[in-house]
Specification:
mainly alpha; 0% strand
Amino acid sequence: MNINPESLKNLKKFAPKWKHGKTQTIRVPIALADQILNYAKQIDNGGNKTKSRDTENVKDSLIEILAKVEAREKGYKSNSATQLIRDLKDLIDS
């Protein structure tokens, strides 16, 4: 079979859908396949953009502590950071 080299030049090159290179086939439970594929696509497109529940909880806790500092509640006065530091340590440990 003769192939015209000029015809090959006009062929459009395959553009991969994944940004991080080569792919492979894996076996996953059918019930989880769509979720796993969506998660993999998020990572491939620059990371997981969804906020985790833990991140939201930490943010809410920090906002609550900041409100106490601004209201100058007992132990949260601007010249005394003892209670603030204690609460932040508790937040980190939880």
